[in-house]
Amino acid sequence: MNVKRYINITKPGIIMGNLISVAGGFLLASRGEVDSLLMIMTVLGLSLVVASGCVINNCIDTDIDAKMQRTCQRETVTGAVSITRALQFGLALAVLGFGLLVHYTNGIAVGFAALGYLVYVGVYSLYMKRKSVYGTLVGSLSGAVPPVVGYCAASGQFDAGAGILLLMFSLWQMPHSYAIAIFRFDDYARANIPVLPVAKGIAKTKLHIVLYIAVFAIVSVLLPLSGYTGLTFMVVACVTSLWWLFMALRGYRKNTELVVWARQVFGFSILTITALSIGMAFDFQALPPSLLVMLS
């Protein structure tokens, strides 16, 4: 068995991004009192669940991937890993991942992990991605689950902080994904996937990118305003999100190279969410002021 082929179909880049966000959510909720074993098992468990979702997605998308330049050499397309073996591998990863989460975390964390998995594999991959322009919106929910799982694993509850994370990461997914859809426009059109640029045009997609980033910028400062993080996070959130918004607005300049602009928006989206994940991990507050009042 070629191990590298199996690692490739788990989409390691996506796993790494989710690893950072789940750790950020966990450390935010821990407020300096970190249960190291619980954190390791939460990160490992969710990483395995995400890997499983990616593998199953590869199996579902074989026909689509074969038509796209970016994905036509995936192991599930070329036959380097058979669909049967990939499905078996993906299901094994799911059993291991959910097993760890069930054993070490709590029902809320497991519930959100299951929700994200079912939305991504069942709703998004099997139907919405292929049939609806709203596929990106539905998929954004599954993409926002990792930090919430981390947060709920550490806190044992879904509170305002978890709700802000869910909304913030969902909003971030939209311009991030739309930017990809612009610079991969030909691929999506060739595979007949109704992403916004293909279904509604580039102009409307640019507008949606700007609007989503603007709302994301507002929501991202709710964590410090609610007392969950401090001034450092506030500064990081404002600087990164406003610069990201400025970059998006540059798409309206004359003679803008569309693909270059979209790649820049995409690239800075990763920098933004990474900075915020790291920021909330280290600039947490002991307890939100509202909770201090309730407990006093």
Automatic annotation (TrEMBL):
Species of the source: Paraglaciecola chathamensis S18K6
Positions of transmembrane segments: 12-30, 36-56, 77-102, 108-127, 134-156, 162-185, 206-225, 231-249, 261-282
Enzyme superclass (EC): transferase
Gene Ontology, cellular component aspect: plasma membrane
A GO BP annotation: heme O biosynthetic process
Function: Converts heme B (protoheme IX) to heme O by substitution of the vinyl group on carbon 2 of heme B porphyrin ring with a hydroxyethyl farnesyl side group.
Pathway: Porphyrin-containing compound metabolism; heme O biosynthesis; heme O from protoheme: step 1/1
Chief subcellular location: membrane
Protein family according to the UniProt entry: Belongs to the UbiA prenyltransferase family. Protoheme IX farnesyltransferase subfamily.
Subcellular location: Cell membrane
Matches recorded under Pfam families: UbiA
Catalytic activity, EC: 2.5.1.141
Keywords for the protein's UniProt record, in alphabetical order: Cell inner membrane, Cell membrane, Heme biosynthesis, Membrane, Transferase, Transmembrane, Transmembrane helix
Catalysed reactions, as listed in the record: heme b + (2E,6E)-farnesyl diphosphate + H2O = Fe(II)-heme o + diphosphate
Origin: domain of life: Bacteria
A GO MF label: protoheme IX farnesyltransferase activity
PANTHER family the UniProt entry points to: PROTOHEME IX FARNESYLTRANSFERASE, MITOCHONDRIAL
Other comment: Carbon 2 of the heme B porphyrin ring is defined according to the Fischer nomenclature.
Topological type in the membrane: Multi-pass membrane protein
Protein name listed in UniProt: Protoheme IX farnesyltransferase
